[in-house]
Design brief:
Elements: E1 2-5, H1 10-15, E2 21-31, H2 36-44, H3 50-53, E3 59-62, H4 78-81, H5 84-89, E4 94-97, H6 103-111, E5 115-118, H7 123-128, E6 130-137, E7 146-161, E8 164-165
Parallel strand pairs: 1-2, 2-3, 3-4, 4-5
Antiparallel strand pairs: 2-7, 5-7, 6-7, 7-8
Length: 173
């Protein structure tokens, strides 16, 4: 088990391999269908703001958050997967969700020295790991608002790293 503290630096990512078990400690962000495309547009349009600058070394879990709990949503939904390259380009180092990703997204992760990790969709386990939460953007989106969570020990498995995928054995060229 590799313990990772946020913010995450490039050296930590370089050492990780597909199949490694990781445990995240520190601040992470939530985001899914309603929020991630907005962030993507902000990045593409070079709209500077404080939130984008806080994403350097960040971890984003593809999830909403409510009093009932939180857990990863499917990451290869168009609205989410299309945001991953832009988010990686501004420094998001770990994207957590579920499901496989396209080769195009794998190449973008490799180009920006970022990884994709999966965690089981078990809301009770994940809720035990949250020490604090606050909405940081898009409050009008309700449970899909972007939250900043202070966590201790979110478990995940590296699913895509350095052009390799747990979902298939071939290396991306």
């Amino acid at each position: 088990m590799t313990v990772i503290r946020t913010p995450v630096d490039d050296d930590v990512i370089r050492r990780l391999r597909v199949g490694d078990s990781i445990e995240i400690h520190g601040k992470i962000f939530t985001g899914r269908d309603a929020v991630l495309p907005v962030l993507q547009r902000m990045i593409v349009e070079k709209n500077p703001n404080e939130l984008i600058s806080r994403l350097k070394g960040a971890v984003i879990i593809h999830a909403g958050f409510s009093v009932a709990g939180f857990g990863p949503t499917t990451s290869n939904k168009e609205a989410i997967e299309n945001s991953i390259p832009a988010l990686a380009s501004v420094g998001v180092k770990i994207h957590i969700g579920k499901g496989s990703l396209s080769e195009k997204t794998m190449k973008a992760l490799e180009r920006f020295n970022s990884i994709f990790a999966v965690t089981p969709p078990v809301t009770a386990l994940l809720m035990e790991k949250v020490n604090s939460k606050r909405v940081v953007a898009f409050e009008n989106e309700g449970m899909e608002a972007m939250h900043e969570l202070e966590v201790e020990g979110i478990p995940a498995i590296v699913a895509i790293a350095h052009g390799e995928s747990i979902f298939g054995s071939r290396k991306v060229e």
